[in-house]
Amino acid sequence: MSAVPVLVKSTAANEVTIGIARLLIAALLITPLVVMRGSLRTLNFSQFKSMAAIGVVFALHWLSYFLSIKLSTASIGALAISTFGVQYLLLARLFNKEHTGSMEWCAVILCLAGCVFAVGEFTLSNSTLLGMLVGIASGTLYACLPLLHQRAAGIDTLTRAWGQFTFALCCMLPLLGFSDWQLSTTDYYKLLVLGILCTVIAHGLWVKASTELPANVTSMVYYLYVPLAMLSSALFLDETMSTGKLIGAALILGSSVGITAYRFHHRAQSVS
After folding, report:
1. Which end of the chain, N or C, is less surrounded by CB atoms within 10 Å?
2. pTM for the model
3. pLDDT per residue over 147-182, tens digit each?
4. Distance CA 71, CA 77 (A)
5. In Å, how far are 56, 66, 94, 120, 231 from 3, measured between CA atoms?
6. What are the sequence ranges of the domains in the chain?
7. Which residue, 227, 199, 237, is CA-closest to 70?
8. DSSP string, 155-202
9. 102-119 and 84-95 are packed helices; what angle lies between their axes, rounded to 10 degrees?
10. How many angstroms separate the CA atoms of 267 and 20, rounded?
11. 212 CB-side CA count, 13 A
12. Does position 272 have pLDDT exceeding 60, yes or no?
């Protein structure tokens, strides 16, 4: 998954083209497997609605994520979406009535400070700022996905992955007129890698992990995504890693990992 920001930034395809291509490849590869298993016939209307909700949120998340990367850089896009760990705290407070204490609010403040450091110049003409803002919105949508998947845990992983990709594709197809398919052979190869490796395999595994593992564990694993994406961007795209960007990354990841570890330890103590 850490290859996604670099591939998205380096291809000439726009965010709509990338989204449709990835989802179309995923739907074409997974649909025959789901049909052969006959799992769709066992679903009720409520379960189809759950998958449709996941698909809508996922489509909006992807469009905003790809746009964030295009507006700014691969590393800024990765950093912006990594704020989902802290945003999850606020969503859990809003929807699950979970308690938010002083440590959680400190994490939120440090995360916001990290975003300020990473952006640098705070003007609307700064495309990095716009990319960060769009990426934070994408992170909000991404933070909703584990909640939606956990509520649809009665549906098996492969069928839920199919629903996520297929319903997201249905949401993106009306935007087909904004896509651009006049691409080079290299760009098409990148879309294939994004579709097969980064979507079917990586996201398929992530659907299973985020459903069956506690949110604390999946969050900690996910944060490996950011340094790997930043390293890849520096190596393959020659992106400059400024002092402000590195400080911002440290604050965003530190606040996210720190509060995740704190909540995990606090919950373990409560259980014992």
Report:
1. C
2. 0.87
3. 788 888 888 888 998 999 999 999 999 999 999 999
4. 9
5. 24, 13, 33, 25, 10
6. 4-271
7. 237
8. S-HHHHHHHHHHHHHHHHGGGGGG------HHHHHHHHHHHIIIIIIH
9. 140
10. 41
11. 10
12. no
